[in-house]
Amino acid sequence: MSQKNIDKLKKNGVHIIDINNVYIDSDVKIGNGTTIEPGVHIKNGSRIGKNVIIGPNSQISNSIISDDCQIDGAVIRDSEISNNVFAGTNSLIRDGSYIKKYCKIGNLVEVKNSIIGEKSKISHFSYVGDAIVGKNVNIGAGTVTCNYDGNQKNQTVIEDGAFIGAGSMIIAPITIGKFAKTGAGSVVRNNVLKNDVVAGVPAKSIK
Q: Catalytic amino acids?
């Protein structure tokens, strides 16, 4: 970082813990009250809002991070994060993803080319790709949206209020209806109706 860039960020109320251990491009914009911890890289015109905590070793490129977020050692590329989002350690958000406000993206989660609705949670070790996830959805640890059939990528839709049990395999193309539930370890191959409960390999209705 150039001294000129450091001075500009400090003037804007940005708190950089160790100016010798961060990399911030000159075209990056960072809001007042934001904290940048050691090992952070912010590049390619990224925009960081106010009162954000960018934790150690986070990497942000060509992305927008809105106010009051906590980015805890995550990698964010070509994506947008709304207000009050938590992105956990070693999570990866990429390829045009949009994370809406009050979401939680757990440790070691990957989100690719997906929209995640307000107040939804994706627990650790999960992969969500080419998906549209509604609001207030809970995706349990180790869940995978199986989006590639060997020829093309397919879309997963998980509607508002759905509960996806830990270790679920969701075979796209597929829609999980509002307030539906999948049991832990289920392999879900067919659409799930609103309010239904499915479990098993392959998953079947048990309601």
A: 124
